[in-house]
């Protein structure tokens, strides 16, 4: 028994409420050319994608080369070739580069690749065009290149989705000559087309219309169907001058069942009881017109079956009838018109269709309202070349405002049907308003502060409370040793460190001046300035209060310095750490490094993947045996390299232009930057799995970049944000990276200091990468 190469069993595919393919069954045997015909949108490409394993069926099942398309898709791909309807190779690669790329994808070594390249070049005639870029090839040569790439690995089955669409007749003929040669070599061909003349070249033909398979069989068998050759009828070809002028009249004759224009001839299906001469005489046509008997074409087959289904009003999805000669027909509800082959059809206005109503009889025309008849007269005279009279309505006045309403309505419809654009236009402004008006507060309060109280008595505790009561400082920790004090500052957990000396209370009681040290992280100049001025003002106020109280009681100077001069009791000595000059560039430039690195990797990655999806090259890759990990790493690593070079360039600018030196370990900075880059690349990949177009990718990337700039601490301190938004900032990866950058660059922080930020960035990276990889599938999303 001859086992079929392709076996399709009740295959169906739905996209929501749209049924693209319904209950289709057929078989294809080795070495045959199977033609699946049907107009655009009938389900041909959907069937091919299901057979290739990149689109899962909704119902039914199918096998290719004995392998199930659901469970064995990755085993099918190395053994088949695919030539998509749209040219989906890389236009910026040369002919040889495209061939070499697909040869490597299929795992050919150097010697085998060179051998196969020579074979396919010889077959397709592309030897003289090896250095030419694919984008510069004409349509026919592009199809040859696509065929060569699909044959580079010697597939057993070749799927061609409308391979001759959009190319000239000569290129079509040459391409079919190549297909015949491949078939002669034993390659099984599965071809989709909507050209009827191409169907004649297939060994078996299936006709699909509106997701239903109407008929299946060999071309000569289909032409013998009784539905196509009704009893008591005969087909004739009549050649006469200006045939289009007589077509409508022929269709009105009761003995004529069908009349179709074919170039300069008319094909008639008429009763055998009448002869063509009788028909010509009824229409007063010259009897010298040539007439001959003809056999039905495949177009006649498909038109007849579709028309019969319409007349019988058969429900879509009814089980097919199986006539003799292994012909399986299946009824459906066809669309109102059937497009014939461009190679055979007459101009659109003259093409016959089974559902085009015949012109009304003369009586019906005469019974039309007078207004209709009068309205038709000027039109007739215009077509005859006669200028309409003065009573004809004048043409509407045209000016620069013409078409405004039509364009306006069209754009509104576009906007309504683009959810991402509506989100970008309506939600993002609201988000910006909330961030700027509510979340961002330029008034600095609650600065994280570490307290090192070496005195510990009541007076020193009152000083701690005084600092906290200013609302400018928030005592997050009270440490007991110098190492913990310095670690809190270098790690960035505290922006201010207050050191109270051990003899603070004793000096005040003895009337001596005590020195209070306030260490301020100057990497954020805005926070540092606020902390400095508040600490000095607090020291002044406390000193005045003490001086007034003591002076009133003893009428003496409240405190004296070592030389005996009267001074304020408390001297607050502030010292700026890391950025003593409070240069704003030391604050912004390290953060800018993180923002730029995310911007480059996020946009490049998301745009690159979405662009390939738009061009169709990604679908072409899906049908190859390239692994998902190989595809992902191959796509992401080049952009990781570009992003890393961008990072180095920005670092050089930071050091030599803005004079921001790196205090910490450069190795640590590079390693943690690579960790952040992985997270940014994963974000770009995630965007590419959501966005369908480059415009959508830009919008989603902008949505990610907006909070990254405003909520990450790059510009505005996070400590001043309301608690709900402050918590949201921990979900933004660049938040952790900016803290790492400022810690290493400005404070010289080591890995222990940065541990909380490294841990947060790692968690973000793992979550985003896992989600991106899970969403990125080697199949087309339904």
Automatic annotation (TrEMBL):
> Residue spans with biased composition (Low complexity)?
338-356, 364-376
Location within or outside the cell: Cell membrane; Membrane
Q: Which GO terms describe its molecular function?
A: ABC-type transporter activity; ATP binding; ATP hydrolysis activity
InterPro entries to which the protein is assigned, alphabetical: AAA+_ATPase (IPR003593), ABC2_TM (IPR013525), ABC2_TM_bact-type (IPR047817), ABC_2_transport (IPR000412), ABC_transporter-like_ATP-bd (IPR003439), ABC_transporter-like_CS (IPR017871), P-loop_NTPase (IPR027417)
Recorded GO cellular component terms are: ATP-binding cassette (ABC) transporter complex
* Pfam families in the record: ABC2_membrane_3, ABC_tran
Superkingdom of origin organism: Bacteria
Segments passing through the bilayer? 422-440, 587-610, 636-657, 669-691, 697-716, 723-745, 757-776
Domain ABC transporter residues, every copy: 6-235
- In its keyword annotation, does this UniProt entry include Nucleotide-binding? yes
Query: Which segments constitute the ABC transmembrane type-2 domain?
Result: 554-779
Keyword Lipoprotein recorded: no
| Topology relative to the membrane | Multi-pass membrane protein
Protein family according to the UniProt entry: Belongs to the ABC-2 integral membrane protein family.
| UniProt protein name | Transport permease protein
The organism is: Aureliella helgolandensis
């Amino acid at each position: 028994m001859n086992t079929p190469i392709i076996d399709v069993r009740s295959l169906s595919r739905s996209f929501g409420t749209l049924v693209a393919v319904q209950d289709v069954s057929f078989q294809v045997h080795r070495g045959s050319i199977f033609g699946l015909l049907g107009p655009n949108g009938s389900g041909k490409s959907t069937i091919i994608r299901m057979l290739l394993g990149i689109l899962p069926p909704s119902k039914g099942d199918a096998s290719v080369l004995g392998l199930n398309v659901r469970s064995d898709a990755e085993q099918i791909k190395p053994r088949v070739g695919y030539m998509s309807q749209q040219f989906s190779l890389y236009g910026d690669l040369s002919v040889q580069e495209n061939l070499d790329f697909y040869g490597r994808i299929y795992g050919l070594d150097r010697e085998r690749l060179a051998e196969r390249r020579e074979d396919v070049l010889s077959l397709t005639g592309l030897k003289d065009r090896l250095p030419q870029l694919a984008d510069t090839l004409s349509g026919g040569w592009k199809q040859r290149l696509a065929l060569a790439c699909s044959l580079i690995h010697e597939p057993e089955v070749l799927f061609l989705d409308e391979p001759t669409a959009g190319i000239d007749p000569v290129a079509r003929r040459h391409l079919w000559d190549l297909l015949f040669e491949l078939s002669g070599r034993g390659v099984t061909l599965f071809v989709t087309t909507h050209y009827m003349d191409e169907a004649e070249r297939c060994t078996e033909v299936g006709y699909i219309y509106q997701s239903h398979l109407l008929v299946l069989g060999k071309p000569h068998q289909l032409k013998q169907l009784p539905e196509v050759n009704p009893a008591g009828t005969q087909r004739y070809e009549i050649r006469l001058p200006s045939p289009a002028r007589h077509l409508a009249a022929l269709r009105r004759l009761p003995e004529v069942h069908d009349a179709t224009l074919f170039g300069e001839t008319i094909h008639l299906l008429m009763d055998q009881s009448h002869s063509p001469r009788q028909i010509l005489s009824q229409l007063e046509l010259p009897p010298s017109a040539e007439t001959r008997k003809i056999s039905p074409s495949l177009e006649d087959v498909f038109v007849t079956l579709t028309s019969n289904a319409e007349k019988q009003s058969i429900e879509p999805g009814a089980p097919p009838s199986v006539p003799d000669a292994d012909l399986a027909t299946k009824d459906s509800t066809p669309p109102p018109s059937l497009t014939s082959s461009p190679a055979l059809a007459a101009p659109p206005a003259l093409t016959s269709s089974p559902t085009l109503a015949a012109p009304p009889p003369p009586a019906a025309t005469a019974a039309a309202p007078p207004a209709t008849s009068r309205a038709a007269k000027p039109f007739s005279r215009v077509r005859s070349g006669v200028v309409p009279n003065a009573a004809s309505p004048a043409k509407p006045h045209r000016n620069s405002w013409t078409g405004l309403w039509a364009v306006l309505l069209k754009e509104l419809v576009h906007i309504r049907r683009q959810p991402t654009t509506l989100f970008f236009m309506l939600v993002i402004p609201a988000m910006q308003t909330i961030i700027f008006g509510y979340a961002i507060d330029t008034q600095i309060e609650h600065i994280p502060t570490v307290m090192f109280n070496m005195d510990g008595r009541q007076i020193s505790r009152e000083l701690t409370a005084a600092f906290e009561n200013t609302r400018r400082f928030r005592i997050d920790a009270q440490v007991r040793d110098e190492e913990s004090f310095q670690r809190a500052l270098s790690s960035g957990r505290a922006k201010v460190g207050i050191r109270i000396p051990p003899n603070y209370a004793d000096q005040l009681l003895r009337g001596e001046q005590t020195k209070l040290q306030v260490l301020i992280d100057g990497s954020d100049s805005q926070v540092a300035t606020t902390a400095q001025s508040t600490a000095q003002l607090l020291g002044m106020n406390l000193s005045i209060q003490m001086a007034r109280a003591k002076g009133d009681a003893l009428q003496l100077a409240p405190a004296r310095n070592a030389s005996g001069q009267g001074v304020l009791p408390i001297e607050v000595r502030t010292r700026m750490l890391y950025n003593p000059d409070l240069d704003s560039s030391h604050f912004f430039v390290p953060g800018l490094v993180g923002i730029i690195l995310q911007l480059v990797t996020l946009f490049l990655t998301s745009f690159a993947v979405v662009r390939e999806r738009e061009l169709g090259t990604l679908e072409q890759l899906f049908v190859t045996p390239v692994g998902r990990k190989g595809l992902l790493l191959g796509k992401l690593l080049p952009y990781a390299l570009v992003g890393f070079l961008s990072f180095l360039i920005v670092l050089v600018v930071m050091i030599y232009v803005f004079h921001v030196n790196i205090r910490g370990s450069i190795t640590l900075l590079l390693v943690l930057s690579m960790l952040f880059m992985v997270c940014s690349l994963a974000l770009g990949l995630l965007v590419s799995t959501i966005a369908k177009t480059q415009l959508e990718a830009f919008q989603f990337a902008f949505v990610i970049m907006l909070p990254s700039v405003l909520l990450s601490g790059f510009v505005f301190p996070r400590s001043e944000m309301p608690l709900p938004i402050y918590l949201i900032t921990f979900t933004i990866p660049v938040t952790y990276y900016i803290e790492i950058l400022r810690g290493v660059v400005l404070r010289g922080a080591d890995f222990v200091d940065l541990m909380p930020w490294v841990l947060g960035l790692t968690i973000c990276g793992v979550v985003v990468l896992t989600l991106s990889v899970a969403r990125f599938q080697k199949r087309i999303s339904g």
